[in-house]
Amino acid sequence: MTRRQQTLPPDYFERLYAEHGDPWKFATSDYERAKYAHTLTALPKARYRAGLELGCSIGVLTRQLASRCDRLLALDSAPTALKEARRRCLDLPHVEFAEMFVPGDWPEGSFDLMLISEIVYYLQAEDVARLAERVETSLAPGGTVLLVHWTGETDYPLSGDEAAEMFVARLKDRVEILGAERRPDYRLDVLLMR
User: Fold this and answer.
1) Domain 10-193 top-level CATH class
2) Under a CB-based contact definition with an 8 Å cutoff, are residues 52 and 68 in contact?
3) CA atoms lying within 13 Å on the CB side of residue 131
4) What is the β-pairing status of strands 48-54 and 111-117?
């Protein structure tokens, strides 16, 4: 399989959602359900003041993550996905959504939780570095970054392992690694900002 060389653009994701609604079966997959449960269990705190979810997709995990946050901002670059995420979380007034394509776009404010699930491997190396810089400037001291990445074969610019390792390496002097777990199909890395 030939790898793409450039960061995947927003229209790549919008086309997928416009054609398939739930292209990765987030709402119906047993794999996703188990991964979401593991993701929430891996969070080192019971509650967060302000969470940021990058790549919220159709809001399945957003809805679950919302129960752990006083305020949650969920981002995605695909308008079709965001429309469904907003519908799914309509009864959660403390959850906000924004159409942003990170790392070029970035929200204002400080967060004590950032969930970066299954998006870093869509980026080329330069954009991974920019994303790490953005995270570093917006994550409160003592804040948590949770990375989750599928480790199977893809045509994305990076593998799940390359993406996670590159991201962690960029922040190595600023974070403590609280956990690094591997499951058969994905890895989960928990970082704490010093």
Assistant:
1) alpha beta
2) no
3) 28
4) parallel
